Amino acid sequence: MRKKSTDRTIGSTHHGAAEFPRPSCLKGASAKPLETVVLALGSNRGDRQVHLRRAVRELSRHVSIVAISSVWETEPMGCRDDAEIFFNLLVAGSTRLDPAGLLSAVNAVERHGGRRRRLRNDTRTIDVDILFFGGRAIRSRDLVVPHPRFRARNFVLEPLREIARVIPIPPFAGELATMVGEGKVRRAGTLY
After folding, report:
1. Whose CA is closest to 110, among 177, 161, 49, 42?
2. Secondary structure in 3-state letters for the chain
3. CB atoms inside a 10 Å sphere around CB 122
């Protein structure tokens, strides 16, 4: 007899599916409303797919992920000349965490993944940015949302167009088709 699973299944916007446990921040009754969030992940050191998979799995403890973009190969922008090609993707979902709580979770995922912040634009095992937090505009010392450079980066715009078909991206959904960023990108498949 099969044991009934309590895991939920989420699929990428393309092929395959991944199983993640239900985030503890969504369990039980809570006065905090669900917020739609979009996170950008990148890696250009070591086994990039392994780093991205681990980060998505860890983030799923805090965000109920409903969309994962394709993986995009990206030429490094603003990095040293010998920097490796990045693998980038976006995840979107819901959370009951407040912005500071989500930033704390994101920073923990980066630390656990071996991210060391020595130099600006240095190589990294994992980088996670909060692109959107609901329709909010946030400006604090530690967090600016929407991410100030999302419109200028094709490695954000291309996967954002993918996941916008699955989940609304407030407040920029109508503008995505006309946004033009910088940097060469190439779709490199899916993570799952």
Report:
1. 42
2. CCCCCCCEEEECCCCCEEEECCCHHHCCCCCCCCEEEEEEEEECCCCHHHHHHHHHHHHCCCCEEEEECCCEEECCCCCCCCCCCEEEEEEEEEECCCHHHHHHHHHHHHHHCCCCCCCCCCCCCCEEEEEEECCCCEECCCCEECCCCHHHEHHHHHHHHHHCCCCCCCCCHHHHHHCCCECCEEECCCCC
3. 15
List, for the chain, all residue ranges whose pLDDT scores fall below the cut of 50.
1-17, 29
Average pLDDT along the chain: 79
Q: What is the pLDDT of residues 80-105, one digit of tens each?
A: 656 688 999 999 999 999 999 999 99
Q: Token digits for 43?
A: 């890696």
pLDDT of residue 76: 72
- Whether 114 and 124 have beta carbons less than 8 Å apart is answered as no
CB-CB contact of 67 with 91 (8 Å): yes
Cα end-to-end span (Å), the chain: 28
The tokens 């995922």 sit on which residue?
109
Phi, psi (deg, nearest 5) at residue 127: -135, 130
pLDDT of residue 32: 79
Contact between residue 76 and residue 101 where contact means Cβ atoms under 8 Å apart:
no
pLDDT of residue 45: 87
Spatial contact of 132 and 36, defined as CB atoms under 8 Å apart: yes
Residue 144 is predicted with a pLDDT of: 87
